[in-house]
Amino acid sequence: MSQVVSLSFYRFGPLADRLWAFAMMGLARPAMARLPDVGFWKLCGSGTGEGFTPRPNTAVYAILTTWPDLETARARQAEAGIFRRYRARATESWTVHLTPSSVRGAWSGVCPFTPTDTLHAPGPIAALTRATVRPGILRRFWGRVPDISRVIGQDPNVLFKIGIGEVPWLHQVTFSIWPDAAAMAGFARSGPHGEAIRAVRAEGWFREELYARFHVLETAGSWGDLTPLMPMTDRPEAA
Fold first, then answer.
1. CB under 8 Å to 108, separation ≥6 — which residues?
2. Measured by CB atoms within 10 angstroms of the end CB, which terminus of the chain is less buried, N or C?
């Protein structure tokens, strides 16, 4: 069996539903811990803009989970009460199922993903970066991130991008989906992103970091009234 990682995004409209989603960042923990077959899991908020910005997005929340296989992931997310409650409250939801192809580093002291040999599998790939930012460099870190966000938002190859996190400003996750490894590598070497990576290494920005790559298995739901994996150049607003 190959481990499957599920990343579900939920958009909330009315203030009451946004407050409910914010409260669930703490209140949902017991229900998540009791889920049958779940492995690693995290409840996350999100940031505004392209990628990540210091300003939280009070409308969007995410749940990351790992499962022993795709069938189990589908079944638990369809049947479990915690996921049904999120979907019932949300105005829109979208889930992407992934299988890890490479991982380096740790998240909350553990390596949550088990890679399989899908590094060269056809189809879209996803990248996830998670870091615990050292408090002493917060100003420098957030001085760089908006530039990276603008660049990724302008890249015609990126199929989906979002910034999420467990704790605002300190625990940050960036998640993006690309048509292939070449497109993702091209962005990684680009100006602001490449400069930030060099600064991370030279100045020791992160207390803990994790870098993972995935093969996209399937998606379910909708996001922004668009098909998220449609190339940017084929989307209606690009016409």
1. 208
2. C
**DSSP strand pairing (160-167 vs 171-178):** antiparallel
Each residue of 7-51: pLDDT tens digit?
A: 999 999 999 999 999 999 999 999 999 999 999 999 999 987 655
190 three-state secondary structure: coil
Stated length of the chain: 239
In single-letter form, the type of residue at position 126 comes to A
- Which amino acid makes up residue 82? I
User: What CATH number does the domain containing 75 carry?
Assistant: 3.30.70.100
CA 205, CA 220: separation in Å to the nearest integer?
36
End-to-end Cα distance, the chain = 43
CA 44 – CA 99 distance, rounded (Å): 20
Q: pLDDT at residue 148 above 70?
A: no
Cα 68 to Cα 56: distance, rounded to the nearest angstrom: 32
Q: How many CB atoms lie within 10 A of CB 26?
A: 9
What pLDDT digit, counting tens, does each position of 103-117 carry? 999 999 999 999 987
Buried (b) or exposed (e) across 62-72, using 16+ Cβ within 10 A?
bbbbbbeebeb
Residue 33 burial (10 A CB sphere; 0-12, 13-18, 19+):
exposed
**Higher-scoring residue by pLDDT: 101, 161:** 101
The Cα 106–Cα 146 span in angstroms is 25
How many whole angstroms from its chain centre is CA 119? 19
Q: Which two tokens stand for residue 117?
A: 């040999």
d(C-alpha 168, C-alpha 171), whole Å: 6
Q: Which domain holds residue 172?
A: 4-238
